[in-house]
């Protein structure tokens, strides 16, 4: 994934568990739910949002967003 351009297709995704917006993490190629600290993988460009596919992540990973989906910084 490359920059904000690649984040756009995912700007309307919400966590199936928390119902909160997800953000793109380019480092792990996943969508992150900051509300519950869960990472959902993106496989071959397709987000895997089945709750069983989500992984609980460390607090350090959720404290620094790569791209906040729907944020004012997004163009």
TrEMBL record:
Residues annotated as signal peptide: none
Q: Which domain of life is it from?
A: Eukaryota
* One matching Pfam family: Trm112p
Question: Region (Disordered): which ranges?
Answer: 56-75
Q: Which InterPro entries match?
A: Trm112-like
Task: Describe the family membership recorded for this protein in Swiss-Prot or TrEMBL.
Answer: Belongs to the PREY family.
| Name of protein | Protein preY, mitochondrial
What is the organism field in this record?
A: Nyssa sinensis
Taxonomy of the source species:
Eukaryota, Viridiplantae, Streptophyta, Embryophyta, Tracheophyta
């Amino acid at each position: 994934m490359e920059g904000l351009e690649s984040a756009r297709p995912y700007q309307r995704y919400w966590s199936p568990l928390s119902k909160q917006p997800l953000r793109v993490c380019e480092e792990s190629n996943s969508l992150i739910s900051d509300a519950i600290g869960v990472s959902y993988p993106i496989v071959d460009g397709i987000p895997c949002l089945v709750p069983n596919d989500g992984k609980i992540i460390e607090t350090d990973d959720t404290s620094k967003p790569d791209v906040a989906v729907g944020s004012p910084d997004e163009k």
